[in-house]
Specification:
Elements (H helix, E strand, L loop, with lengths): L3 E2 L3 E5 L6 H11 L4 E4 H7 L3 E5 L4 E4 L1 H12 L4 E4 L13 E6 L2 H10 L4 H13 L1 H9 L5 E5 L3 H21 L4 E2 L14
Parallel strand pairs: 2-6, 2-7, 3-6, 7-8
Antiparallel strand pairs: 1-9, 4-5
Helix pairs in contact: 1-7, 4-5
The structure holds adenosine-5'-triphosphate.
Keywords: ATP-binding, Cytoplasm, Kinase, Nucleotide-binding, Nucleus, Ribosome biogenesis, rRNA processing, Transferase
Protein name: Adenylate kinase isoenzyme 6 homolog
Subunit structure: Interacts with small ribosomal subunit protein uS11. Not a structural component of 43S pre-ribosomes, but transiently interacts with them by binding to uS11.
Amino acid sequence: MELRRFGPNIIVTGTPGCGKSSTCELLKDELKGYKYYNISDFAKDNDCFEAYDEARKSHIVDEDKLLDKLEPLLRQGNSIIDWHVNDVFPERLIDLVVVLRCDNSNLYSRLHARGYHDSKIEENLDAEIMGVVKQDAVDSYEPHIVVELQGDTKEDMVSNVARIVAWEKMWLEQHSDGVTNEYQGPHGDDEESE
Ligand SMILES: Nc1ncnc2c1ncn2[C@@H]1O[C@H](COP(=O)(O)OP(=O)(O)OP(=O)(O)O)[C@@H](O)[C@H]1O
């Protein structure tokens, strides 16, 4: 397995309906050669579901199995991960966590347009109001790699993608020798860690 990656791994996360997949579609066009992982699709294609949650009408992902399949791919770097869950990935493999936010009226319209049940819309609206996804990211990664971006309009999306592309360019300039994929211990004091 790769000891170092020479391109960053970027998570695009946020409450369902906030614009992850749309943003990633645009981002993929800008970041040439990046591999895109929509984790819902990846889990299905790689038989990583462990059960089905009838109440929430959604599959439950076997996170251990998911990571077994995903880690070798993330160790190659240059990945875009699209999922509303962000706190399952090893910190040592993640370079940027983009938390997309969306105002409630927009989110309601988007989820309603999808035909979501009222209960599922309410659950997601509550999560967005409470900032659940952002909190997961802040609890799981160094604060300086977590970026919160508003995604209410198409202009927002274009601007968000431009910011991520600019960040990626800077990352490459700052990490010409790549970064380690290996765990560096609690304090990361090994000069190899960056
Ligand atoms: N910045 C934006 N401005 C306007 N519309 C947007 C924006 N982002 C997403 N949308 C629209 O909102 C809807 C949901 O977007 P999208 O599917 O990308 O969300 P998502 O976060 O990937 O949802 P899920 O997690 O359920 O897959 C789509 O109809 C999309 O066109």
